[in-house]
């Protein structure tokens, strides 16, 4: 039996990287998926690869805009009849030291990660509480646990997602809606592989398992939190880090 058979999931930031891997994993486990992304063309291409309109739909979505998130969720309801899983994954980086970071760089990262996750959580919750069930999975980061140099904006936003998830979990538990978070560590992606070799090697040296993670390894944990295998879990934060900073 597939773990998400007959379920409908919405994934933001789903055109590439971790978001796309989550969408692929969910479809493989029986879900219909709506992919939200600023890059509409990439989202459309991903949806086509996942099986086309009967299995996957793409919607251009700026998660900082509540109306865009409404449209994303409306697509799930109109195309597939329910909203069972919401994955708030969309994110950006604008790294700079505290001394050189601009106010705009700070605001952009807080808006996309923290406000975007708030929009996705509250909009999904409004539907799920009426259904008396659902799972929300928010993507935080190890940076939100330990803080990273050059990432006061990103670390603050990712720590905020943990607090948001725990507060929402308490509000929604009696409606049958679960809210959990994932904190990935060093995950191999186009973004991380673009970093200087010296920085990559330094991060790798901090990982007890001795390797970077793969996007599908984050997707597997998202699947666990989205399905009934985690039916008695809410308000938790699962680290997918290879043991880094445990």
Overall description:
The protein is an alpha/beta fold. The protein has one domain: Rossmann fold, CATH 3.40.50. The protein is built from 9 helices and 7 strands. The protein has helices at residues 17-28, 40-49, 66-80, 103-131, 143-146, 152-172, 190-193, 197-204, 215-226, and strands at 8-12, 32-37, 56-60, 85-88, 134-139, 177-184, 237-240. A 7-stranded parallel β-sheet has the order 3-2-1-4-5-6-7, sandwiched between helices. Helix 3 (66-80) packs parallel to helix 4 (103-131) and helix 4 (103-131) runs parallel beside helix 6 (152-172). The model has no long low-confidence stretch (mean pLDDT 97).
Record keyword descriptors for this entry.
single chain; 246 residues; alpha/beta; Rossmann fold; seven-stranded parallel β-sheet; 47% helix; globular
Silhouette: globular
Which homologous superfamily in CATH is the superfamily? NAD(P)-binding Rossmann-like Domain
Helices and strands: which structural class?
alpha/beta
Strand order of the largest sheet: 3-2-1-4-5-6-7
* Mean pLDDT over the residues: 97
What order do the helices and strands follow?
A: EHEHEHEHEHHEHHHE
Biggest pleated-sheet summary? 7 strands, parallel
Note the beta-strand portion.
15-25%
What is the level 1 CATH name? Alpha Beta
Which stretches are poorly predicted, pLDDT < 50 over at least 5 residues?
A: none
CATH topology: Rossmann fold
How many individual β-strands? 7
Q: Just name the CATH architecture.
A: 3-Layer(aba) Sandwich
Question: Helical residue percent?
Answer: 40-55%
How many structurally independent domains? 1
Radius of gyration: 17 Å
Organism: Nonomuraea guangzhouensis
InterPro entries: KR_dom, Sc_DH/Rdtase_CS, SDR_fam
Family: Belongs to the short-chain dehydrogenases/reductases (SDR) family.
GO molecular function: 3-oxoacyl-[acyl-carrier-protein] reductase (NADPH) activity
